[in-house]
């Protein structure tokens, strides 16, 4: 399902040359289908045909399914939406977006505070770090009783 939705990754040479990716490429791509001969060839063609058919419908980049098309349009309409999603689902874990990358992405820009932002005295402003530290301390105190 991942490969149908996001495609076969070609952006990381060491991943693409791995045994798993070679098997995927040989089973699901047109090039792999042409090279398949002998035993199992028909099954590989069937898998590749189904993969291509499913990709035409459900690929995020070009799928024709109504829900996929609507999701694609929505992601493209949000500043950095598609880029953020694709960076989060990179096949190579070394290349995936980190939490800091997500926070600094254009998609999150509307959530950033503007310099010089003033709060009302009634506002209680807590950072995530404060919240997480408070909850951890509370749990530690509760478990020590």
Q: Would you kindly provide a written description of the structure presented here, covering whatever features stand out?
A:
The termini are far apart. It contains 9 helices and no strands. By secondary structure, the protein is an all-alpha fold.
Topology of helices and strands:
Elements lengths: L1 H5 L6 H4 L2 H10 L1 H6 L5 H18 L7 H12 L3 H8 L10 H5 L24 H17 L1
Percent of residues in helices comes to 55-70%
Tell me the Rg in angstroms: 23 Å
Nearest-integer average pLDDT: 79
**Binned strand content:** under 5%
- Mind summarizing the main beta sheet? none
Shape designation: elongated
Report the uncertain regions.
Answer: none
Compute the number of strand runs: 0
What is the helix/strand order? HHHHHHHHH
Structural class label: mainly alpha
Say what oligomer this is: single chain
**How many helical stretches?**
9
